[in-house]
Write the structure tokens for this entry.
Amino acid sequence: MREFPRNFGKVFGSGAVFAREDRRGVDFRLSLFQYAVFAVFLFLIAGFWQLQIVQADAYAARANDNHIKSLPILAPRGKILDRERRVIVDNRSSFSVILSREGVQEGALRSIAEGLGVDASELLARLNRFSKRARYEPIIVKEQLNSGEVAFVEAHRRMPNYPDMELIREQRRLYPSTGIAAHLIGYVGEVSERELDTLEFARYSEGDVIGKSGVERTHNETLMGVDGKRQVVVDSAGNHRYRIGEKPAVNGKDLMLTIDLDLQVVAELAMDGKRGAVVALDPRNGEVLALVSRPTYDANRLSGRIRAEDWREIVNNPFNPLLNRGIQAQLAPGSTFKPIIAIAGLEEGLIDDNFRVSCSGGASFYGRYFKCHKKGGHGSVNLHTAMAQSCDVFFYTVGNMLGIDKIAKYAEMAGFGSKTGIDLPHEASGTVPSTRWKMENYRQKWYAGETISVAIGQGALTVSPIQLAYAMGGLANGGVWEEPHVVKSDTGKLEPHKANWNPDHIKSVVSGLYAVVNEGGTGIRARIPGIPVCGKTGTAQVASNDLVAATKDPDLYKDNAWFFGFAPCDHPEIVVATLFESGEHGNLAAPIVRDVIKAYFDKKNRGEISRRQPARVQTASSHPAPVALPAAPATPAEEVDGRPDEAQP
Amino acid sequence: MRVDADRLLIDSPHERQIIRFPWWVLLLASLLAVLFQIYVPATFRFLNFLEMPLLLVVYFPLMWRRQILGTTFGCALGLFQDTLSHHPIGMFGIAKTLVGYFTATVGMRFEVDHWAVRFLLVLFFFSFHRVFYWVLSNSVLHIPLELDLGRMAISGLLNAVVGIFLFNILDRTRESA
Amino acid sequence: METLLTRYRGVLVLVLILAAQLVMLGVQVRNQQDIRLVRVWAISAVTPLAMILDGAKSAVTDAVEGYVDLRSARKDNVALKSQVDTLRRQNEFLKAELATADRADRLLEFKQRIPSRTIAARIIGTNAAPSSQVVFVDRGASDGLVSGMAVINGTGVVGRVLDAYPNTAQVMLITDPSFAMGVISQKGRVVGTLRGLGQRRCMVDYVESHLVVEKDEWFYSSGDDRVFPRGLPIGPVVSVAQGNAFQDIYVEPAAMQRGLDEVLIVLEAVHQTVPPVATEAIPPLAPAPEKTLEELPEVSMGETSATPPAEGAAGANAAGVPPGSNATGTATPAQTHTPPARSPLATDADRLLDRYRRIGQSQNHPFGGGSVGTPPPDFNRAPAPPGAGTAATDATTTEPAVAGPAVTGTAATGTGTTGATLPGVRGTGAPAAAPAGASANTTIRSTPAPSPAAPVKAAPVKTAAPNQR
């Protein structure tokens, strides 16, 4: 065997031994050359390896896109908090397991089925259903694994004879399980194709999880983070071989609501087993303190993939749980509308505090007899008593004096007939009938007789609970309506609208509302010792008496009960409106409002509300206090803004 | 030092004698080395820094000074070690093939009986072997291994020390040329 | 023939050999296949030698240790060692007044029962790779070993069988990076997945941040993975930290702390990998040890074969309460160790709703109802204690949010009326209850619902309770 140096000598020279120094130099250069050659070889081998072994996958993957998996790194949505940063909606991690169908043995499959708690034959059937798809395409075997199942997958994923299993982590929304504030909050889901075509969601792409309703939808952009992405090359067995690139996710921002969970849960409890809605507002700044709609639903079930039976259950419910009755129910307000008639009468100068009407249980207008709810009649009543006793004849009379267009004018000033502008989707505007309205919608002229029904909140008039709370809160607030909103950051941003109503007139109306609750009126159930609560009951017919008599299920057509209340009467800090569908009488809705108001003041007594400053009521006052009540002495009027601004156009 | 350095290099071809070993020494040493590797650390955990097969792959090719023989020996021992592991076969094979080749090449240039040469060579090839294995594992198998350089250095030194004694023992089994 | 070929023969051979091996490696990597046959040959060839060496070692050890029968001496030694373990544990128990002596007896009993379903094996070699966490044992497929079987020893989980060869098997240790198993914490019954990291410590993954895991508490196998029977000790928690989405919990596997020698391979548990699911609860993986647990008196306390998570720890205790763990008497573990009732699937809203519901209940208040004249509820009163005893902590967790400020508020105004009734009643007509002698800090948790009928005057103003909170 010849050695390199010897060969070298032979090739390059005489074959004689080189001089010692020379040979060393040559040896050295030769070694360098040798190592260089070797390095080149290594380089080539590395390149060969890259091309043939490693990149082969990538090239194949590019040719057949299934081999590059782009795994989203889902950005968690922001939490939804109440006004005290208590968590209403949280996130939780959830795992799904996907299974590669390559090398699946039936034994292993059975074991997997057992480990995951799914039916083995069902799993087999599922695999067969996917048999047309490419084998390397993994399928989701089970979603929302519990920790034990996660452990099972982790322990078995690399076991011999087991197909490759992979855990996929998702962030799921965690809604209150009891359906608290479900309508207000809404739920999330994958953006649908139809939604992608709309302007609102055009910037999202398929598979994105977006808010579908409630604040989840209106504040989707705040809540939604930006998903990251991880691209991995997947080998034939579904193993992640290596990562091509990664873009980290940007988490969504938390959203703080104006909702006070204490009031919200009390309202929820008060509505348990009932149908209807509760809306609580702070009339001083428009903050929504509670918004309840019943029947409710478990938003957890509607988020993500909806199970068919859950969907069917909700859709087939005749009472439509998805309807947010707080802002979407449009129903006749009944007697709760009477304060509007009263203020209209006062403002128009048609009546004053001493104006009296004699009620004998009914009265005839335009040839038709309109009954009062009290058979024997109330006798001679003025505004105060008429309000307290909810005397229909009094308001028939005043309404008749006003005429429909004046009624409509004042109703619209108070916010009826148009959306309040609350930052929730699909708010209903209700209907305030007028001659023009009838002409536009029915091409008919208004009959004066129709006005009589409207005067007691029946007929074509419809309102939503939020409108009622908004209108009455603004009225009690001295004719200043703050736009309702549920997101805390909107407080103080929105301009109120004002009506230039005489504070004395407002005082008269409020004093009547005080009597409703505290002076033996219809709303006595809303009375809270020590707290001046004002309110008004309302009982609205759903169908004509004939129809009720004809139907087999009279429960369906039971009268709706309404109640709104606010407190303290002179400077209301909270106004609560409730709709109790099929509640039969407004006085049965009163305890709902009472509980919410009580919760508010109990909380205030605990010192938890005292620091709460209304956003925009501190403007210098040029008017005296609108109300001064015997039972609840009015404090100085620095909180009411009665500037003679232009009323709503 | 200059004198020392001079003595470490081989100057003339006739100094590069080829040293032979009886075949049974080769076989037994290899077997024992691999057995040591899988058996001894199981009982004496502190001994798991030792890389007996590597020491052999440094020693024999160094003595033989024949590249092909060294390459083959490294390959064979490496593959044997591979079969007793649970990673794909060829990882140790490749690493040790290279070590065998290089030690044989180096043997042609250095005074291989000198303890300092042996010490440095073991230290160097131990590190080379570790790093190369690490590179292979990370690039070829995509198994991210940790490379603890401090640990590697200490293990390398210890192996070098053990190597000097082991090589002295093995020196006695030489067949005189 | 002095061509280039001959001149560069060395390099050429090197390149060829390297290329061949690379191709071989490539084939294995790409196809995810193992050249198993070669391995079987090599392992079969080496195993007898290893066993001879092992035998030699034993012989030497035994010779040194005495003149008695070699095998039995070894066995005695092993038995004594384990007995020492047991006694040491027992000793710690007693010292800490954590358990009674007969429990330690039962531990021994338990240990003795294990072998009937397991097969003992000796570790005869480590893997040839330097960083390897795989060892060889002297039992193989011929002894009934199958890949996936659990490997344990007296102190806890060792690993699981990776591959079984005719007379030997590879065991992946618990510390191997590809190892994973289901675990459950001793105190909080927190369930997670343990993974090896290639270091001494292992990590418990997938533990959500609201769950409570304490340092030094032990993790046990949960049985969820259907490889390991429930209740085998793993090791103590050495560190807990809040991670990104899950907690970073590190556990030091107890079985790995001393050198490994003898292990038990659980044969039947693996045959039961897929037991017929008879009950709705998660079925225990291994009927073998589970049954043993059942037979233990202190385990059978409330323990059924269905083994709902809450009770499994009794079994865990039986498997050996680790030294230093503050196991309480058997009568109260459920209460002491119940995790805070912050259910992972509830938000503050749910908890608050529950609180208000209980407030209503305690005052017989129908929310949103009541006839004319019924007084409105007082929402500032303490709620009725929840029905289930375990939920007691719920009240405590939500208490500060609602009741806390109330107390301070009253303290400030000086109208505090009673100890038990949270003020805010303001001494108005609202009835207040004052169970005398209610202790200050535990009032909310332990006092019964204040009876509305109790007269106001009964309130001893001396009670300092509210002010102390």
Q: What stands out?
A: The interface with chain A takes residues 11, 13, 16, 66, 105, 108-109, 139-140, 142 of chain B (CB under 8 Å).
